[in-house]
Amino acid sequence: MKFLRIGAGIVLVLAVVFIILYAFYPSKSNPFSASEDAVIQRVKDAEPSFENLSFREVDIVDGHVRIKAEFKEDALNRPEEPVAWHQLAEKTAQDLYFDFVKNRIVELQIYENGQFRSVAVAGI
Length: 124
Hints:
Blueprint: H1 2-24, H2 36-46, E1 53-61, E2 64-71, H3 82-101, E3 106-112, E4 115-122
Parallel strand pairs: 2-3
Antiparallel strand pairs: 1-2, 3-4
C-alpha cells in the first residue's frame, strides 16, 4: 500500500510539472509566439489585397494591431452613409484578422482626406 501511495504521489507531481511546463513554455503553435515585427510585416504585405485602402500606420498597442488606413477610391466608389463606412471597416478588419494576423486583435481606423470615418475591431 505504501508503494501505491508513493507511486500516485510521483505521478501527481509529474502531471503538475508537465501542466506547468505546457502552460508557460512558448511553442510555435502559440498564437502570440510571432514577434510584433513579424505581425506588422504581415499586415503591410497584405495592403495590396485591399485596393481601396492605403495603410498609413501599422503598430501594436497593448498587444493588439492598430491600423490607420486612408480611403483612396474615387467619388463613385465612396461610401456615403456612416453605416457603409462601418461595414467597410468591419469587413476589412475581419479579413485582416482571419487571413493575415490570425493571432491578435485588429483595430482598423479608416480616414478620408485626413478626416476620421469609421473604426472596427476584429478578433475579440
